[in-house]
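INFO  loader      accepted 1 record
INFO  loader      residues=382
INFO  predictor   begin
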Amino acid sequence: MRKSFIISFIFSIFLAEICFAQFDIRDSLITTGIYQIYNIKFEKAESTFQTLKNKFPSDEAGNFFLTMIDWWRILLNTTIEKYDEGFLSKLNAIIEKCDLILEKDKNNAEVLFFKGGAIGFRGRLRALRQSWIKAADDGRLALPIIKKVTSLEPNNYDAIFGLGIYNYYASILPEKYPILKPFMLFMPSTDKDEGIRQVKLTAEKGKYAKYEANYFLMLIYFTDEDKPFESYNYASKLVKEFPDNPVFEKWGGRIAAKVGNSLTASEIFKNVLLKGQKKMMGYYDDITKREALYYIADYYWNINKVDSSKILFEKCVEYSSKIDKDKESGFYVNSLVYLGMINDIQNNRNKAIEYYKKILDMEEYKQSHELAEKYLQTPFKK
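INFO  predictor   done
INFO  writer      dumping tokens
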């Protein structure tokens, strides 16, 4: 009796060690693959998550994170929509697979997490494409799923991230997009400060979503809260962790310019151009080149290197004339404002007038019309 008990005890320990070892392998593969995605090493990430699928064929983690590679392909150039259909198809397949599992095990927190995450990413793409009602509806569908995950696993900080995103954006978006107001009447009340607190919690303690939480905090503080210095802290952290991620690096440059550090912004964007010359993924498209040229030109303007600034603003206009199809971008309009002012400084009054008139033919961007009309009356002087 005693002997059989000892054997059973030893065997149970052995089984537990196998389970923990399997969990460690799975966890290591997921974290490695996530890191590879953020480093824009997509082929390596695909290999890592395919290994995860092979080792754990019944686990939806492999499919979910493979789909996240497509999401980052979309983020590298959001004007290109060729990945959208495949991305949505994969997300819907994950949702359907999760539903089959949940029919037999409705309280499977991990499967609930992946289902909620898939719906959430579907909503993010729809928001990116400005399909606001469909995006809001995905938020409505995902919310109770993520709430259930947090009720089953109160310390699941990755799921708490989903609650934070909902709490924050459901609080601010109806004011930005009034079309959402009637829809939000049927949704739970929200608190944007609680949303920020929850996202920060994930940024600090999350397992798989901590980098995404840092990314969102960077965006929230820059675009919605108008706190660029706080945004810059998150951008710097992300760039340091993932130096070859063009999305993070460009945001670092934009925010540096916003806080008045045009030198840092220009250094960042010079590095962006160098990486573009090396054909690094996400760095060599015309939109990225145009943006980099603009911020470097802006720095030269600030330090009175007018000739250098003029050359780069002219290149920025050249790229903009190819890129901007439906509406002139801020880069295009502002470059023309600068070129008008530069030509006034260089006593090329007729050329300056030409630029100011061109600005007035475009849709107003910030104070562009006011400045153009002002300098048409009185030449700019620096």
